[in-house]
Amino acid sequence: MFKTIKEWLKPGLMIKRWIAAGFLGIILLIQGIVEMMRNRMFSMNYMLYFGLLIASGIFIIYISISEGMKSFVTLVDEGMVFVDKESREVNSYMVEKKMQINGPRIVAIGGGTGLSTMLRGLKYYTSNITAVVTVGDDGGGSGTLRNEMGILPPGDIRNCLVALANTDELMEDLMQYRFREGNLKGQSFGNLFIAAMNGISDNFEDAVSRMSSVLAVTGKVLPVTLDDLRLEATLLDGSVISGESVIGISSSEENPIISLKVLPEKVRATDNVLTEIANAKAVIMGPGSLYTSVLPNLMISDVSKAISQSSGLKIYVCNILTQPGETDGYTVSGHLRAIMEKTELKKIDYVVVNSRALSDSYALGLYTRTGAKEVILDRSEVEKMGVKIVEGDIMSIGPDTVRHDPEKLAGLLSDLIIDVSADKGKMSALEYLLAREKKRYRERMIREEPEKTLD
C-alpha cells in the first residue's frame, strides 16, 4: 500500500496537486462549518464570510475530485499507472451487468435483418437501447396478417424482439418457426404470437411492449408509428411502384428509384419514439435496406426533426454491399446523400464503414450470384458533406453473402460513443475505465483470433 502511495506521489503525474487541493477544500469546508456553528448570529457580514468559506470548500473539493479522476484515467489509459484488473474480472457477469445497466442511451433506427443483426451485439454493451422499427412491410407472412387482420406488419418487430431477448435457444427457434403446410404455410409462430397479443392489448405498441416482457427483452422495441404506413416509389421511367415488397424487384440499375413517399403523407411517429430520440446519447441509423428499411423511418417528419434537434450523436452505419434494385452503384456518399436529400435530416456526425476488403475472386462470385458489389468509400466526397468517417473490420463472411458482424459492429459503435462522450465530459471515470479495459480485452481477442480467408 505504502509503495503504491509513493508511486502516485512521483513528480509529473498530476495527482499531488489535486490531492493538495482536496485537502484545502476540506479545511475551508470545516472552517466554514465551525464558524457558522459558533457565530451564526453575529452579523450579516459574518454570515456571508462563513457562507463563502463553505461554498469555496465545496467547489474546490468538487474540482479536485473531478480533475484528479481525469488525471488518473489519463495515466491508466497511457499505461503510466497500472491497474491490476484481470480480463476475466472485467468480463465477469456482475461487471458486465453493471456496464450494461449504466450503458449509454442508444436509439437504433431501421428494419429488416440489418437492424436485428446490430441489436444482437449492442445488447451486451448497454441495457438502455431502443429499437425503432419500420412498419412498411407488406409482403410474406407479415403482409398476409396485415391484409387479413388489419394489424401493422409484425415481421421486423419480431426479429428485433428475438435479437434483444434474454431467453434460451428453444424460445428463439419457436419464435422464428415457420409452418410448412396447411393454411398457415409460410407464416411464423412469432408473427401469430404478436397478432394474438395485439388482440388482447389496447394497440399495437402496447402489444409489442407486453411481448417484450414475455421474452425478457433488453431495452425496448417500438414501432415507429401506429399509422397504416405504406411506401410508394417513382422510378426513372416515370412508373409508380406501390408496396415495400415490390419496390426492390421493380427497380434496377437502368431504371433506379428517383423518389420515395410514405403514405399517408401526414404519418405521425409515436410519442414514445420521439421521447427516446430526444433523450438518446446516440441515434444510430442502419444498417439495412436504404429505401425499404432506413428511409421509411426518417421520412416521417416527426422522426427526422427529433433527430436533428437531439444533442446525441447522429451515426449512420453504411451497408457493406449495394442492394440490387435499390442502391446499384451507390458509394458511401451516395447513401448519405439519399438520406439528406429525401428527409429533413441534414446533419449526420459519423458514418461507420467496413474497412476489410473482399478478395477479387469472392467479390466476383458474390456479384455473379446476387448482383451485389462492395460499397466504395469515396472519402473526399464524404468529408465535403461534413461527415466524419469511422472505419473498422466489421464484416462477417458467409458462403453466399456478406453482412455485418454483430460483435465487431457493436464494439466499434460502443468505442465511438464512449470516446466522444468522454471527450465531452459526459461519462464518469469509473465507466470510462471499465469500458477501456473491455476494449483492450476485445482487441486482444481479435488479434489472437485466426485470420479467416475470403476465398
Give an overview in words.
There is one protein chain. The protein has 455 residues and is α/β, with parallel strands linked by helices. The protein has 20 helices and twelve strands.
Short synopsis of the structure:
The protein is of the alpha/beta class and 455 residues long. It is built from 20 helices and twelve strands.
The CA-CA distance between the termini, in Å, is 55 Å
Taken as a percent bin, the fraction of beta residues is 5-15%
Strand arrangement within the widest β-sheet reads 3-2-1-7-8-9-10
Strand element count: 12
Computed CA radius of gyration, to the nearest angstrom: 27 Å
Major β-sheet profile: 7 strands, parallel
Class derived from helix and strand content: alpha/beta
Shape: elongated
Mean pLDDT: 84
Measured as a percent range, the helix fraction is 40-55%
Treating each run of at least 4 consecutive H or I residues as one helix, how many helices?
20
Low-confidence stretches: 1-13, 82-92, 450-455
